[in-house]
Structure formats: structure tokens, C-alpha cells
Design a protein that fits this description.
Layout lengths: L4 E2 L29 E2 L2 E9 L3 E8 L4 E8 L7 H16 L8 E7 L2 E7 L1 E2 L3 H7 L7
Antiparallel strand pairs: 1-8, 2-3, 3-4, 4-5, 5-7, 6-7
């Protein structure tokens, strides 16, 4: 998937699950385009990984675009997956680096748990690697 959005440049599988790159959106029956999670209106799918989906959202209170990460349907009810998701949120909240997206919030809602993350404009990691990463990013 080539997207105008990305959330970080680090593949989470290669960086102890603290990065935020995904390949293709997946169906999360609890998340609807145009729907809301707290103050976040869901605008479009961004990507998906082994554990969840990521959406472009608009924080209507702060008037900024964000990335909203949700646990996918098949993992949502698993206590282990939920604990892992919370651990990811806690790790991200302790990190600050230009190549790692910032975490803004951890939300618990009827639809599940969500991470509200910094939305960064640009190519996804897969496309950057295929095209050759710029020397300043190596």
C-alpha cells in the first residue's frame, strides 16, 4: 500500500513492538469510517499488521489529524493481546525519537482499546526501502 500517510519509519516487528508501520488495512467490524472513538472521528483506513489496524482520524477537540490503532477483531477479546497492547502504549509513552511516532492517548471504549498516535505524512517503510532510503535516513 502506498499511502500519503505513515506513522513512524520503524517496522514494529523489527523494533520490539514500539514502531508503527503496517502494510494493508484489515476489517475491524467495531471500527467504522465516519464513526467516532471518543473525540476521534475515523476518516480512512491506513494499514494493518498482525495484531491490529490503523486508521487516519481527526481529533475534533484538538483539530488535528492522528493515527488511531485498534486491536483487530480476532485478538480483541484475548487478555494476552490486550496486555501486550497496553505494554506497547506504555513503552511508546517513554520514548522520544524522530523516527518513532509519539503517542497522544490510550483509549478504552465499547469498541475496544485504541492508541492515539502521531500521524506523519510520507511514504511507508516498505516503499522507502524499495526506492532506496535517503542517505540522511540511513
Amino acid at each position: 500500500m502506498t499511502s500519503k500517510w505513515q506513522i513512524g519509519l520503524i517496522d514494529w516487528r523489527a523494533s520490539i513492538e514500539v514502531g508503527c508501520w503496517y502494510s494493508e488495512p484489515g476489517p475491524n467490524e467495531m471500527v467504522r469510517i465516519g464513526g467516532r472513538v471518543g473525540s476521534i472521528r475515523i476518516l480512512e483506513p491506513l494499514g494493518a499488521g498482525g495484531m491490529g489496524e490503523v486508521y487516519v482520524g481527526l481529533d475534533e477537540n484538538l483539530r488535528r489529524k492522528v493515527a488511531l490503532k485498534a486491536i483487530s477483531g480476532d485478538h480483541r477479546l484475548s487478555p494476552r493481546a490486550r496486555a501486550r497492547f497496553l505494554r506497547e502504549a506504555r513503552i511508546l509513552s517513554q520514548l522520544e525519537h524522530p523516527s518513532i511516532c509519539k503517542i497522544y492517548d490510550y483509549l478504552e471504549a465499547d469498541a475496544g482499546e485504541f492508541l492515539v498516535l502521531e500521524l506523519i505524512e510520507g511514504e511507508n517503510l516498505g516503499v522507502a526501502i524499495e526506492q532506496g532510503i535517503a542517505p540522511q535516513l540511513k
